[in-house]
Amino acid sequence: MLATGQKGSNSDVIVWDVAACAPKYKDAKLYVWDMATGKIVAKHGLEPGKRITCSAWSPALANGRAYTCATAAGEELALWTVDPFTGMVSGQKVVLGTVRREYTSLAFSADGAWLYGGTTSADVVTVNVQRASVQMTHPVCSGGVGALLLSPDGGGACLVGGRDGSLSTFNAAGGAWRELRPFAKVPGCVTSLSLSADGGAFLVGTAQGGVYRLDRTSLQLHTISQAQQGQLTAVAFAPGQPEAVATSSTDGSIYVWSTADYTLQCRVQEPTQAGGALCCVLTRDAVISGWGDGNIRCHARAAGGATCAQMWMIPGAHALAHSVGVTALRLSNGGAFLLSGGMGGELRVWDLRSREMAAHMKMHNSRIVGAAVMADDKHVAAASEDRTWSLWDVGSERVRTTWRGQSMFRGMAVSADKVSVVTVTLDRKIQMWDVEAHGKEVGCVASDHRGAAFATGGADQAVRVWDWRNGGEVGGAACHSAPVAAMAFSPDDAGLVSVALDGSTCFWQLT
Q1: How far does CA 398 lie from the centroid of its chain?
Q2: What is the CB neighbour count within 10 angstroms for residue 377?
Q3: CA 196 → CA 85, 116, 152, 203, distances in Å?
Q4: Can you list the pairs that 20-27 forms with residues at least 24 positions away whose Cβ atoms lie under 8 Å?
Q5: pTM for the complete prediction?
Q6: Strand order in the sheet with 495-500
Q7: Which is more confidently placed, 324 or 436?
Q8: What is the pLDDT of residues 273-323, one digit of tens each?
Q9: Strand 420-425 relative to strand 190-195: parallel, antiparallel, unpaired?
Q10: H/E element, 381
Q11: Is 233 strand, coil or helix?
Q12: Residue 28: what pLDDT?
């Protein structure tokens, strides 16, 4: 079983059945539970306004039947005796003297005579359990103690995980501290320690989302899982390569993950001055990304979780006087150019071979939230927070047409045929657009009597029929030699009649 706690004022404690991946017991208060039945055997009121930050159970029984546990709330430590047979709980505060610390973790010695408390001050406080008083303090690391774990060797040693990533062992036998020297180090701030199921390794969790396995014999460190610390901003697959995916983060990192075993293939890490990775695209050999400092960077993909080396950079790609940042990136279908959108609403096209600007398109006055390259690689689309999205001709750098929504656009996507576009807006609407419904202006529309289909006619001399339910095209053809002027469905919806400016009338049979 596995127990988890939730953050908040009215939080749940859940005991999970790991094999079934389902919650077994759940309660929103702090109680003592019988894990065999899931029933509460004891409870006790706590002082209002004081939040328990950590707790620990003593491995020794008091009087052969009662359990002893310890809790920390702010700068206070308390020892509790729990009798599971009567449900009685009694507690006493530890006499701290002049020691004032905030506690992050607790652990008892193997015989239950000593209580060790890790603190944010990077030291361990030793408490004599029988006297309920502080015996001594000792510095163990820097940045604070993240976790404590009683050594399984049985010699009374305790493992200390520091927020500086260090792992140290101490032994308080006889009330004296042995000289402390870190024996291992993990990347990140240690927040939890546990023994593996086979007892052959320590499992170490960090504040950066990493979980590591440290072999007790060889002290070899193996990565079980990793995570990015900041907010994730984008995700991208390489064309034709489903086995890897890239995620970018505001913490200045881009991770490329294997979708087969969810391990880290390689990573990009830039300093905080880069402003965070706001968008990215993945190719078979490289990671191209847009950053908050307005630069576009390209890194070579690596293997084995290694850090990617930078190949090239386009400085100031989207660094204007009033706005800085690359907010959208898309590769052309042929791979010849890169489309980028900026915080100021500008669109730019970059030749990937020379990394020179090939086109500059400016109409939007707010952040570009989505961009796309159409099937012909001659037209591009972009959606902006200014409530408009537009279609551009790259060669002439002119806008072909613009659509305005009723609310701020938050994203856009283009279908596989590069014709249909879907947008999402701040007012919770999802809208579908057909960019090439007609090659030219649409002049008329008519609906059938059942609400199943509607038809459109345009200056391209074509008539097209659409499904009301999903917006998909049912059929269409060009028969007239001039723009279609009007159309109507027959009363039984079995036929459609269209008329055009050339004086022609067409009768269509709908099946």
Answers
A1: 37
A2: 16
A3: 32, 22, 11, 6
A4: none
A5: 0.69
A6: 484-489, 495-500, 505-509
A7: 324
A8: 999 999 999 999 999 999 999 999 999 999 988 999 999 999 999 998 889
A9: unpaired
A10: strand 379-384
A11: strand
A12: 39
The pair phi, psi for residue 272, each rounded to 5°, is -60, -25
| Cβ-contact 498, 445 below 8 angstroms | no
Residue that the structure tokens 């009121």 belong to: 45
Task: Please list the helix, strand and coil fractions of the chain in percent, rounded to the nearest 5, in that order.
Answer: 0, 55, 45
Of 1-10, 80-89, 370-379, the poorest mean pLDDT is in 1-10
Write out the two tokens for 306: 């290694």
Q: pLDDT band at residue 172, thresholds of 50, 70 and 90? A: low
Total residue count of the chain as it appears in this document: 511
Torsion of CA 293, 298, 303, 309, to 10 degrees: -80
The tokens describing 217, both together, are 């014999």
C-alpha 496/C-alpha 488 separation (Å) is: 6
- Are the CB atoms for 339 and 329 separated by under 8 Å? yes
Side by side, the strands of the sheet bearing 398-404 are: 368-373, 379-384, 388-393, 398-404
Query: What is the per-residue pLDDT for 383?
Result: 93
End-to-end CA distance of the chain: 61
Of 319, 255, 305, 308, nearest to 285 (Cα)? 308
- SS3 at position 272: helix
Task: Work out the mean pLDDT of the chain and round it to a whole number.
Answer: 85
* Cβ–Cβ under 8 Å, residues 13 and 30: yes
Amino acid at 278: L
Give the position of tokens 């504040």: 207
DSSP 469: T
